Amino acid sequence: MTETLVQRVWTWLHDTFPERQIYIRSDGRVQFFTFGPSLQATLAGLTLIFLGWVAFATVNVIFKDRILAANDHRYQQMQAAYENRMADLQLSYDELNGALVSAEDKFKATADAVQAKQNAISGFLARETQAEAAAGKGRGGSQAPLVFGGAPQDSNGEAGLVSPETADSDDPGSSALAVMPDTPAPQPRTGEPPQQPGFWDRLFHKAASLLAPARTTIQGWLAPSAHAHVPASAYAQHPALKALAEQTVRIARLGDAETQLMTETTGALNQGVGNLRAVIRASGINPDQFARRINAGEGGPEIPLDQVRIEGISDPAFTQAYLSASAVLSELDGLTAAVRHVPLAMPVSDAQFDRSSGFGARVDPLTGRYAFHPGIDFAGPWGAKVISTAAGTVTFAGYRGGYGNMVEIDHGLGIHTRYGHLSAITVRQGAHIAKGTDIGRVGSTGRSTGPHVHYEVLYDNAVRNPSSFIEAGRHVL
Q1: Which one has a higher pLDDT value, 457 or 238?
Q2: Regarding the domain with residue range 354-473, which homologous superfamily does it belong to in the CATH classification?
Q3: Is 0.90 topped by the overall pTM?
């Protein structure tokens, strides 16, 4: 087949370019040149190449400007497309970067708020722990307090509460409470209760309270959501933004859980307040009047809780819950301090003593007539230890008529206890003693028929039944 194709080409070449001769006659001489088919084909090819190059050069010379203009236009189009693409990429980058910065700021703000809440709760729990430790000072090491709280330590015990001057502390780890710089409402000059509002004022406040939930709901609708500033396309192009937003929502829910924790803590503290009030009431003392004696000498302007904020926290629900819990804890501190003035313990050991005579009317052991007995008699072994039932100051230590050798202790807030018929006194008048201090020994001095201790409790210079105090103390000791 290859030989046939070569033969065909060779035949076509001879047919197209037959052999030609050129004769040249000069001075009677004749010369000729023979041009074979191969030479003719070669010359024809070279001629065509030359003519093509001449045509191309001619076209370039004639249409040079147009070609340059077309090339320049095409380059400008490519450059414009490139610049548009770069602009789109820059816009997309700026959008993603802005969304990322916004999401990071939102996450940081939420995390900082949660951290501030945790700091506030830590300070609150530290204060509560100190209060519990203070409440358990008078108990044995194996006994734990059954109620929360304790006596306030000092003015710095209010963990996190500061004045407006100290609110701008540079300590990032503290969660200081600062009163907002609002001018307090005019305060009354005395402690008398304010004038009751009229009918129209009560009607107006009632309507405002009914509309408050609707107003809160509308504000929630109008408030921008956490993702309103982040376009949906940003999540599609950058999945990390969506994960960051989800973590932000999760941390915000943790902040809500801490608000619930403070609410539950307030309930537990309220229960502790109720328990202490029940103990004071069981002893026969009005808890409201008794607590006012602890809080005597207080005052200052009344600033509503909605004007107080926690530095670094903008959640009003948590602020309200924290302040409510702090207020209840302060009330619990006061009641605990008041209870420490109440003699709730036994003056002698239960195992060694019997209650030989109770409080109230009885047959007098010496005269046989009916008479009033202002205390309780505990009969026991001679020389057994007698202890103070609460902390206080010894106001009398010596011999007093029918009491024989007697010790009287002032526990404060109008409460006194007396211990009579002692064989020996181990404290001196004017001494400040703690609960459980050894004050004397059982004897039978004075108006007595045998070794015992006569125990009295006085409140506002009136004798009270010591059994009520001892039974009330069984709930907390």
Answers
A1: 457
A2: Glucose Permease (Domain IIA) (2.70.70.10)
A3: no
